[in-house]
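Summary of Year 1 activities. Much of the first year was spent building the evaluation harness for sequence design. The harness presents a backbone, in tokenized form, and records the residue chosen at every position. We chose the following record to illustrate the format because it has been used consistently in internal testing since the harness was completed.
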């Protein structure tokens, strides 16, 4: 089948943050992301990645959007295991894993500015 050149190939959420350096350190240490790039001197835009998930960080001084107003849902193999890892890393967990009627087990984590990542996995029981 021919490739459709008009189809998106990747995406990245953009989180507005107050302090790029502190945010990069938090994403590495507490969430296990790697820095994929930095831009500007001093840095005012950067990217982090873990697996297929890419998040760009933009300095609040460079946009009219407020810091801490973004969220992103990330799907993982096992939310409970992923939660344990992030707790050990020192992540700011807002809500522990719970299973919901929509068939997912998920939990919420905040970055330093309050941007929220929701990590979830399908509930093998289909929701309880």
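For this record, the design step produced the sequence shown next.
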């Amino acid at each position: 089948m021919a490739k459709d050149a008009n189809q998106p190939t990747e995406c990245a959420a953009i989180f507005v943050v107050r302090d790029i350096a502190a945010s990069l350190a938090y994403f590495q240490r507490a969430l296990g992301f790697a820095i994929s790039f930095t831009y500007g001197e001093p840095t005012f835009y950067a990217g982090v990645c873990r697996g297929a998930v890419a998040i760009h960080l933009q300095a609040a001084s460079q946009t009219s959007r407020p810091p801490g107003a973004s969220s992103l849902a990330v799907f993982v193999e096992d939310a409970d295991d992923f939660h344990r890892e992030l707790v050990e890393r020192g992540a700011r967990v807002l809500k522990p894993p719970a299973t919901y009627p929509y068939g997912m087990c998920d939990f919420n984590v905040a970055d330093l500015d309050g941007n929220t990542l929701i990590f979830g996995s399908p509930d093998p029981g289909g929701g309880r």
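The chain is about 15% helix and 40% strand. Quantitative recovery figures across the full test set are reported in Table 2.
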